[in-house]
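Recall that a protein's primary structure is simply its ordered list of amino acids. Everything else, from secondary elements to tertiary packing, is in principle encoded there. The following example makes that idea concrete.
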Amino acid sequence: MKNRNLSVWAFLFIVICFCNTFAKNEITAEKFLVLGPVKVTLPLDVHNPKEDVKPEDLLKFNFFDISTLKPKDSESLLINNTKFSWVVSPALAKPATDQFELNYLASYIQTNKFAKIKIKANSNNCFQLIVDGVIKVTKSKISKSDTLNNKESVSSDIEIEAGKHLIIIKTVTSKNQNTPIFELKAELDSNLTNNDVYFTTDTKRFVTISDMLDNQKASSVSVSPNGEYVIIKLSKRVKSKNLQESYYKIINLNTNTELQSFKGLLDLTAVQWSPKNNLFAYTTANKNGTNLYLADIKTGTSKTLFEEMQDFGGFEWAPNGEFLIYSISEAETPDTKGLKKYKDMNDRFAYNNPNSFLYYFDINSGYKYQITKGNNSTSLNSISPDSKSIIFSESYFDAKNRPYSRNVYYLMNLETNKIDSLFTMYWGGNANFSPNGDKIAITGGPSEFNNLGLNLPAGVTPNDYDNQLYIYNIGTKTIEAVTKNFNPSINDYYWRTEKYIYLTTVDGTREHLYLYNTDKKSFNYINLGVETIGSISIDKQGTKAVYVGACANVPNKVFYIDLQNEKYKTLFEPEAEEYKDIMLGKVEDFDFINARGKKIEGFIHYPPDFDASKKYPCIVYYYGGTTPVEREYEGRYPKNIWAANGYIVYILEPSGCTGYGQEFSALHVNDWGTLTAEEIVQGTNELLKKYNYIDPKRVGCIGASYGGFMTLNVITKTNIFTAAVSHAGISTLSSYWGDGYWGYTYSAVATANSFPWNRKDIYVDKSSLFNADKINTPLLLLHGGADTNVPTGESMQMYTALKLLGKDVEFIEVDGQDHHILEYNKRILWSKSILAYFDKYLKGDNNWWNSLYKN
């Protein structure tokens, strides 16, 4: 409850005005959420059963895992078959009658900014003070008085970030005690008021980074061939192990019930249904190799197929269910001389490039043999519907043609071992048989098959990351470009009947499902009720689907859809319990027309407590590379978290990304920041022009990877941003091209046919390092210390330049992390660093930043 004591405010006003000194402001928790009393069973010493046990001794025992206690008015717990409820009441616990009893008193402390406060607790009883699950202080002395003695008050200095924090007082009472009385106060620094920090028993809160990383998540789904069952892969952080633990649940879609016989399958590496409906295979892995098992839904039993298979790569069932094909990797013998002779650019990878080969495994007999071998790696694409043939591909380095690798696809008869060459692709994906086995579907860039999928004016180089669908006729050897005039980019496809193919697409900022009619050459949009699709599985008949989906301000859920009537429903909400009390802000579209008359899409996240009468700081986020920033929930750059910390967040989709048609995506090729920077600046100005609740003097920008390059690029051209953040940003195009693991291959699309020796206007002029003197915006550089995609030197050389130029720049290297910051503790600190940096410049509050980086 907010304390609005006018006399205190008047006193502060007088002190500030006349003494020019600052007094401490103190707030008090007026009410608590109380749980108890719970009868405590005393520990027994069998050799000395009459030994006295004191209340302070019992405080040391963890009756509950504090992290599981989520106090809420009327929320109940069942303890020893007795129901106990949290009840809002004054700070008073009932005295024990004839035995020891346990009581919990809880309050939340809410702050809208990073705060340093002193928590002070007092009682005539013994107690522990616990803040966010951590014991801060213990008072073991019991007073005989039934009043509070301020001399016995205990306190703890704490630092808390914006949000709601749980404070619990744990106390044990015993007979013949006076009525325990409790007092909880917080002493605030002079820069804080009781509008900034206050006590409350209201559990409603905003989303936090812990919700993003710790809650149970659904990551993938797999529907049985007959559509009767679905396997859902879930993961949840296990704090005691300091890792994410995966497990599976199997649901009967007809009854919507979980199969208890396979409940909580743990630590499986892969799960795949057998075509025989009631069977599925799964693998586990350890230091000795991979084990493969076959499970039976009806009996609830499993049997071992093989154990400790070394260098196992994955497997696929034959459609007849009689055998499976798996892969084994064969790494080259490592060099022991200390000198390494490169064969080609792929040798830049730190690990040996293993070749992968295919093997056959008969389910009934256990008989297995090797299918492919050679100097180049082979990959299984598809097994024919009659289980007699396979499509496999061979990949190898090709220095003469972009993107410097080739995939050759082969058709192999498993009965005769006859191999026929099908086709060669440069940007090819996975090839799959049609249901009749006479055609093949495959994805690839617009320029595949001699520009067959190209839908651009003559002389315009396509963006070959704009994925297209092709159909190859095995008999006639003719190819059809299915999506040539279809704007969305293809993510994946599911050919379930000869007439219909399901397509998942990147459709602007959203991911959608379409049904392609091979007879009518038409596309039918299927509404799934979500904005992004994390995983989808469709039964063999194409009648049912289960998918993981989310919206920009709705977390991932598992859905079921009847594809015949196109009606969907929620099947499972992994985070339903956590999100009962979480408030999320609204998300709305914000589009504008660029200088070339083209619409540029975008969207805005608002703080959950948005008030249009206030002025807000704003964060502008972009990628600018070949793919759009989709309206996903969470992600490595969590817009909902930024909004929850009081920022309006604007995301825009500059020219060049896929999902808007080939003409739009082709603008990415050889642009490297010209159009993109113009549109970031224009979009930001359009935003500020339209919404007067955004403070134009408090606008920051952030991007990562290509987006990090764009941050560095755009602040050499404008001063509209108050602060900027670049994660893994490219500062010199030539060094990224030659040194990054994927630099030259990404550039094969983004800088098609352009090289440092023939396009200095790109590699030099568009590199921010050569324009560092034009940067005036405060800049935070972030980089993983083991980044192989964009080497850490890209940030280091920009930091060096700006330091020598006397510019405002910070550089944080995250030790041991690659292109993405994934290690739990480092990811949390990295995420907080971004917000703390923006708080420093966009909110004028450097306390959080200074706390993170005291030196």
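Residues 1-22 have pLDDT under 50 and may be disordered. The longest strand covers residues 101-111.
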